[in-house]
Structure formats: structure tokens, C-alpha cells
Design brief:
The chain is about 35% helix and about 10% strand. It is built from 17 helices and 14 strands. Strands 9-14-13-12-10-11 form a 6-stranded mixed beta sheet, sandwiched between helices. The protein has a 5-stranded parallel beta sheet with strand order 4-3-2-1-8. Helix 14 (about 350-365) crosses helix 17. The radius of gyration is 24 Å and the shape is globular. The protein starts with a helix and ends in an 18-residue tail after the last helix.
Length: about 525
């Protein structure tokens, strides 16, 4: 039997920084939380072997299996070094045609690869898939993390992820209920308000989550969102949304967790942990200070602000799902062939996973607008390369080596070019590579109006113009007048190399645009 304090610790998933595991004092802090009965950890960063070994140690010390969660929407390599990084969910939707059996098989293989690597590291609760329907082209925090702006498409990909992940032995997590796709504000920074009619919310934003429930998703993460059509309280504090809509209306019986409680969206509200538990949450994710949260909850129980029955119901659900957690152990000093034992580690090939990732990246490149006769590029000597957008991701990028060294230009106040080409002649071909990165606390997923206007001027001076979007495809909507518009949904070197192959004619454009850009292509 657990005492009250142990029950309360089970309600919390705390942060674990893999990059700090070299510190003995940091490791001891994590071990101390395990000894107190912490429910689990959300992993950020780390080296593969070091992180894996420490998670194994934490699990061996814990009397109850730990949830090890992680934001690995783009594969385990998004967090852990030496693991495989996959393209974004929007890239996946661009690359995979759900009506083609071979494509669906490729998708399932990729999801299985993510699950295998997660289990190898010790992650048993990957915080995927994102089921937000991205209806706002200026969404600063969802954007390419979403599959599409079509709720049925989002639901199909989401259900596929959930089914494959659950069959592989990990606990899937649909997020961010009841839908973060139609916001222009990052909830890490402040509370977004979604002012939509109830019917539209249910038919578009909530629909993929309803389908996720039917697919057997183990957990659902909410978003820090104000949705007046549902409640005057934010979703994270709303009993109407969590218990009324999700538990009762959608009939969800799995684990409900908050989004990270260290975000600034709820900074104007007091006693957030207490309100979350009373709203119907099972798990409080990533609080600022776990021990102070425990004290606040204990006090609330003693004052009758939280019923202990509410705590017991949450813990019962948590323990039910923890009973499903696989705790793989590789036999010491021998392999499976010698022992005959089955192992989750057997057959994991990181090199094969890298090939899967590259295949999806190449298939995702989308020719949004084509002017006959421009592609493939035959004479690279007459091409200027222009960089725009997020300067933190273009350095050393493959396009720099694609064009002659003296013809790279840079636009935008943030750029500090290592070299700048000669003055732009009239009538060359220009390639504009726009880099955008979706990241927490950044507040934007697009480019500045200044950059838009500078690029438009360059298009007017050029004989042919090719606009490449590495990241948000929505930036392409500003450049109807360009000859060629290409979307690659990630700012990675992998995506850039895929695009270069298409520009050269070595690869055909296979991607399908998963969102509407409202382009005037006539």
C-alpha cells in the first residue's frame, strides 16, 4: 500500500536532463526522487549509452516502474545523440500516401523504428503523435509538428502511429487536446485564446482525439489553451474540458496529463497543481519544483480541497498502465542466440533506421509550383544562392557547396555572411533558401516582412527564381510570382540534401502538400 505522499509523487513526471548525467550530484537528485516514489521522468538530451545506462539504473531502483517520457516527434535522435532523427510529422504526411500499400508499409516501419530505439534507450512513453490540426498559417509552435490542416488526414496518421506504437510495447500519447492547431501564440510564452464556435471545435480540432480514443491511445496530453466556447477557465484547469468533454463525452479511460507546467501560459493563475487534479488530470508534467508541488497537494488534501478518492482514482489508472511497461534486460555476457531468450534489443539496426529516415525525407520534397523549362538546373555557374530566415541553421548547409563559392547572398538583419558575392546582375537565376525552425519560446514560425520584401525585389530582378522552404511551407504563400516553389518541411541537412537531388534531376518530386497555402498560381 502507498501512503499519501507516495501516491502524490506517482502523479508527477519530472524533468531529466541527459546532458547533465556526467554530474554525480545531478544523478543523486534523480535517484532521490525515485526513492520518494516519483512517477517518472521526461527526458531531454543526452548521449545514447550514458542515458540508457542511467535510465536502467533508475528503473532498477524504483519499486514501481517509472514512466520515461520524451518529446520524440522526430524520432529518438531529436533528443538523444547517436539515435535516429526522422523528418517532421508534416514531412511524413507529404511523403506517405495513405492509399498506397507500399507507402503505408514504409510509415509503419518508420514508426516501429522509433519505438525500437525508444525501448532501447529506456523511453516507454514517447509523447507522440501530435494531433493538432494546423489551421493557422502563422502558428508559431505547431506548424510542421502537425500532419495536416485536414482533421481526417490528421486522424488517419495519428491512428496509424498509435496502433503501431502500442503494438510495439510503448505507451503512445496524443497531444495537445482539445487542439492547439488554430493559434498564433506559443503557449510556452503566454496563454493562447481560440475563439471558435463549438461545432467547429468539435468537428475539426477535437475530431482526431476522438479517433485516437477509439484507437486505444494510452495517454492524452492537453494544451494550455483558453477556449471560451468550452469554458472560461483554461483547458488545463477546466473540469468541463478534462472530465466533462474528454472523460465523459469522448469516453476516454486512459491517462490524462498536463502539458509542461513550467510554461508561462498559466502564470496568472494560482494553485495550478491543485486545480489540475480537481479538473481530472492523472499526471502533472514537468513542474518547476516537484517537492513544492507535493507539499501544496498534501496541504490541499488535508484542507479538503482535494478528495483523497480523486488521488486514488488517478493512481489506480497510472498503475494499470505501468503494469504494461516492458523492462527489457539484455542477458549479461551472452547474446540471445546463445540463451534462446527473446529480447527487445535483438534486431535493432540504427543504420537501417537512418535509411528509412532518408527515404521519407526524399519522398517528402514537394513541388508546389512549377514553371516548365526551369528545372532541372543545368548551368549552376549562372545561379545565385540567397539565404533567408533563421540564420542559426544555415551555416555549413549543403546548398553552400551546391553553387559557386562567390555567389552566396544573405538577406535579413540577422545574417552575418562569411562572404558576399558580387552585386546581383540583372537576369540570373536565383535560388532563395528560407530556413524556419519550430521551437519552444521562439514565438514565430515564419520570416519578417522585411525579408519578404527583399526577396520579392530579387525575384523581380531575376530571369528565373526558385524559392525553397526548409521548415514552414507557409512562407511560400508570399511568393506567388516566383517560377518555382518547393517545400521541404525541415531545416535539417538531410532535407537540404534531398532538395538538391531534386534540383539536379537526380530525384523526382514525390511529395504532396499536406496543407492549403491559398496560392494564386494562375
Amino acid at each position: 500500500m502507498l501512503n499519501l505522499e507516495q501516491k502524490l509523487y506517482q502523479l508527477i513526471i519530472n524533468r531529466l536532463d541527459g546532458d547533465k548525467l556526467s554530474s554525480a550530484s545531478y544523478r543523486e537528485q534523480a535517484i532521490a526522487l525515485v526513492n520518494k516514489g516519483i512517477g517518472g521522468f521526461i527526458l531531454f538530451g543526452g548521449k545514447k549509452d550514458e542515458t540508457k545506462n542511467f535510465i536502467d539504473k533508475l528503473q532498477s531502483l524504483s519499486k514501481i516502474p517509472l514512466f520515461i517520457a520524451s518529446d520524440i516527434e522526430r524520432g529518438v535522435g531529436q533528443q538523444v545523440g547517436e539515435a535516429t532523427r526522422f523528418p517532421s510529422q508534416m514531412s511524413v504526411a507529404a511523403a506517405i500516401n495513405k492509399n498506397k500499400a507500399d507507402d503505408v508499409e514504409l510509415l509503419k516501419n518508420a514508426i516501429n523504428a522509433i519505438a525500437q530505439e525508444a525501448l532501447d534507450i529506456g523511453i516507454n512513453m514517447p509523447l507522440i503523435p501530435v494531433l493538432d490540426v494546423n489551421r493557422n498559417p502563422d502558428n508559431p509552435i505547431i506548424c510542421t509538428r502537425a500532419f495536416s490542416d485536414d482533421p481526417e488526414e490528421v486522424a488517419w496518421y495519428g491512428k496509424t502511429y498509435i496502433t503501431v506504437l502500442e503494438e510495439a510495447g510503448v505507451l503512445s500519447c496524443a497531444k495537445h487536446f482539445p487542439g492547439h492547431g488554430d493559434t498564433s501564440i506559443d503557449s510556452h510564452i503566454e496563454l493562447p485564446v481560440i475563439s471558435k464556435p463549438l461545432k467547429e471545435l468539435l468537428n475539426i480540432d477535437v475530431y482526431p482525439f476522438r479517433e485516437a480514443v477509439s484507437a486505444g491511445v494510452s495517454s492524452i496530453m492537453t494544451g494550455h489553451l483558453s477556449i471560451p466556447a468550452f469554458d472560461i477557465l483554461p483547458a488545463t484547469l477546466s473540469e468541463k474540458i478534462i472530465t466533462g468533454l474528454l472523460r465523459n463525452n469522448l469516453g476516454y479511460k486512459g491517462i490524462i496529463m498536463t502539458d509542461a507546467l513550467n510554461m508561462s501560459a498559466l502564470k496568472e493563475y494560482d494553485h495550478v497543481p491543485v486545480q489540475c487534479i480537481n479538473a481530472g488530470f492523472d499526471i502533472l508534467l514537468h513542474p518547476e519544483n516537484v517537492n513544492s508541488v507535493i507539499e501544496e497537494l498534501k496541504q490541499a488534501v488535508s484542507y479538503g480541497e482535494i478528495k483523497e478518492d480523486t488521488i486514488d482514482s488517478a493512481v489506480t489508472r497510472i498503475l494499470k498502465f505501468k503494469s504494461k511497461i516492458k523492462r527489457p534486460e539484455k542477458p549479461e555476457g551472452c547474446n540471445d542466440k546463445k540463451t534462446g531468450k527473446s529480447s527487445l534489443f535483438d534486431g535493432i539496426s540504427y543504420s537501417k533506421h537512418a535509411v528509412l529516415s532518408d527515404t521519407i525525407s526524399e519522398r517528402a520534397v514537394t513541388l508546389v509550383k512549377n514553371t516548365p523549362g526551369v528545372l532541372p538546373i543545368r548551368d549552376i555557374q549562372d545561379v545565385y544562392l540567397v539565404f533567408a530566415g533563421d540564420e542559426s541553421v544555415y551555416n555549413g548547409s549543403p546548398p553552400i557547396n551546391y553553387v559557386p563559392n562567390n555567389t552566396a547572398l544573405y538577406v535579413g538583419a540577422g545574417f552575418k555572411p562569411a562572404h558576399k558575392g558580387p552585386p546581383l546582375r540583372d537576369a540570373p537565376t536565383i535560388i532563395v533558401a528560407i530556413f524556419t525552425n519550430i521551437a519552444a519560446w521562439k514565438g514565430s514560425s515564419g520570416i519578417s516582412e522585411e525579408e519578404v520584401q527583399l526577396i520579392k525585389k530579387l525575384i523581380k530582378k531575376s530571369r528565373h527564381s526558385i524559392i525553397l522552404s526548409f521548415g514552414s511551407p507557409y512562407v511560400l504563400r508570399h511568393f506567388n510570382e516566383a517560377d518555382i516553389l518547393i517545400a521541404a518541411y525541415d531545416p535539417t541537412e538531410q532535407a537540404q540534401s534531398s532538395v538538391i537531388k531534386c534540383l539536379k534531376g537526380e530525384l523526382s518530386f514525390q511529395g504532396r502538400l499536406p496543407v492549403s497555402l491559398k496560392l494564386n498560381l494562375t
